[in-house]
DNA sequence: GGAGAAGCGACTGAGCATGC
DNA sequence: GCATGCTCAGTCGCTTCTCC
């Protein structure tokens, strides 16, 4: 259990160490708004940013993108704020919730007709979506969200998950049929923000989080690969709090203006450059996905989902940009962005989206592709992959337990070993250290990355496969394979390379052969 | 410098797990 | 059922360390 926790911490740290510089992703107006919130609330800017763009999607009231592909992409985002209990996940959720409530209050929407939903089961969520198709669902705890699947019957969990997948890319009418009743949801538009503990979040990606018995394949529908995950770590708060700058628009202003600009169902397009670029990005992800499709479902799905994601993210960034710019242009009319008032409401009602506002440029798409890649890597790292090589860092925690000089020694042992193929299972037997096979495997992996050789499977025809490390052949023969071996041994080494290899496998016959040969040779002098 | 202890690696065999 | 891999306990021989 403690090693599990250790591995979880490693992944979180890895995610956090890969910094997202929002200055490179956002235009200056948008950054000013997001940064102001982060500084005044002392919260993680990554959380604030993610909750903001998801909520922004909600207030575009079902806007869509005539994308680079044949079909229209709805502007819907699912997101998870992932972090430990002290990483302040709830604060950003509260902040957007309050901003949304202010938006609805200004338009006189009664609380019971609010589009900010907090359903605790699939039943009520679908009923709400039936009543009003545009909902923002906030889950303060991911566990609650997971609990909504099949809360009445375990075999309905898969159905509900499937439905959730459909909400991500809804087509016209979505139906949910139960024995007693059925829901008909017309163009549902559900955006999700959930706060999740690292343990639960990682379980979702690996699929072990649900209550179904067959836990291994629970994420096979890729539901959680649709979620954008922002990871933050607990950090030291600033002692002095920064007062909000009233010259900088607040989230409530941003959302209200977005809502007013989208009173019609808007459709956005790319310009030619942007479209060409996005097509390239999509092609790259498609290639990566098909490369992985036969060997790794999870990665294949992650790449596939990145195709949809890069389009959605570019639209979200685009809308954030145009709305922020408009807000900053209002600074002269509005002396203070303190609270949402009727004066602001009047100004907003005059605003209309222009023709040019509907066109996404290359720059935004480029930034969106950076952001997509960043979130893709975060997901990979959370799932235990190395983002660059796509290798699974299997229980990397173990190497951390092994002292460095031990690792060095083992690497040297493998390198200097007369055999050029080393069977993994021979190591724990021969090197009597308190190191498991998994730990030796990680050392293999490291050596592979260092270019010392390659990890392969044994080439037996039947039965389970063993793991061998095939060393890279040295071009120049080094006579001093080991300073400790005497000359007699060295001669054995050079002549019986192959036999030594075989001896490392545990095939009895072959071992007998080898040992008899070895005995002969050693007995000779 | 030599004797003995300690450490290390090669190898065996048994029992068990796993895939065909 | 068979072939193979994995793990563990154990033996043997060699090297290195330590103490006198």
From TrEMBL:
Low complexity biased stretches: 478-525
InterPro entries in the cross-refs: DUF3987 (IPR025048)
Q: Where is this region: Disordered?
A: 472-525
Among Pfam families, the record links this protein to:
DUF3987
What is the name of the protein in this document?
A: Uncharacterized protein
Species of provenance: Rotaria magnacalcarata
């Amino acid at each position: 259990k403690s090693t599990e926790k250790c591995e979880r911490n490693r992944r979180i740290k890895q995610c956090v160490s890969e910094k997202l510089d929002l200055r490179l992703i956002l235009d200056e107006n948008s950054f000013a708004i997001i940064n102001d919130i982060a500084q005044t609330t002392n919260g993680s800017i990554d959380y604030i940013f993610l909750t903001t763009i998801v909520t922004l999607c909600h207030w575009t009231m079902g806007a869509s993108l005539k994308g680079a592909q044949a079909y229209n992409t709805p502007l819907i985002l699912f997101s998870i704020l992932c972090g430990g209990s002290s990483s302040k996940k709830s604060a950003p959720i509260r902040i957007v919730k309050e901003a949304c409530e202010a938006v609805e209050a200004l338009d006189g929407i009664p609380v019971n007709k609010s589009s900010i939903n907090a359903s605790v089961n699939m039943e009520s969520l679908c009923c709400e979506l039936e009543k009003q198709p545009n909902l923002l669902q906030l889950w303060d705890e991911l566990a609650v969200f997971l609990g909504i699947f099949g809360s009445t019957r375990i075999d309905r969990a898969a159905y509900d998950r499937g439905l959730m997948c459909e909400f991500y890319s809804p087509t016209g009418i979505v139906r949910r049929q139960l024995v007693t009743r059925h829901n008909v949801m017309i163009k549902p538009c559900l955006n999700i923000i959930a706060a999740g503990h690292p343990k639960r979040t990682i379980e979702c990606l690996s699929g072990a989080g649900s209550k179904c018995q067959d836990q291994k394949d629970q994420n096979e529908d890729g539901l959680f690969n649709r979620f954008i995950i922002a990871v933050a770590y607990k950090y030291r708060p600033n002692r002095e709090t920064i007062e909000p700058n009233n010259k900088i628009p607040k989230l409530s202003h941003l959302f209200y203006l977005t809502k007013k600009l989208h009173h019609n169902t808007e459709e956005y397009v790319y310009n030619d450059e942007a479209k060409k670029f996005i097509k390239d990005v999509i092609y790259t992800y498609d290639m990566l996905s098909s490369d992985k499709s036969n060997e790794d479902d999870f990665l294949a799905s992650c790449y596939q989902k990145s195709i949809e994601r890069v389009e959605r993210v570019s639209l979200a960034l685009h809308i954030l940009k145009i709305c922020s710019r408009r807000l900053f242009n209002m600074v002269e009319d509005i002396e203070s962005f303190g609270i949402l008032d009727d004066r602001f409401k009047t100004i907003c009602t005059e605003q209309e989206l222009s023709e040019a506002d509907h066109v996404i440029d290359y720059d935004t798409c480029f930034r969106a592709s950076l952001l997509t890649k960043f979130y893709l890597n975060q997901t990979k790292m959370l799932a235990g992959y190395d983002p660059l090589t796509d290798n699974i860092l299997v229980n990397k925690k173990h190497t951390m337990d092994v002292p460095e000089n031990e690792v060095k020694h083992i690497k040297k042992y493998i390198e200097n070993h007369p055999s050029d193929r080393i069977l993994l299972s021979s190591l724990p037997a021969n090197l009597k250290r308190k190191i498991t096979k998994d730990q030796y495997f990680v050392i293999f992996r490291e050596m592979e990355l260092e270019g010392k050789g390659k990890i392969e499977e044994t080439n037996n025809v039947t039965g389970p496969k063993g793991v061998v490390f095939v060393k890279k052949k040295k071009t120049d023969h080094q006579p001093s394979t080991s300073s400790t071996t005497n000359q007699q041994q060295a001669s054995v080494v050079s002549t019986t390379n192959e036999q030594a290899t075989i001896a490392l496998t545990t095939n009895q016959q072959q071992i007998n052969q080898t040992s008899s040969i070895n005995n002969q040779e050693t007995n000779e002098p």
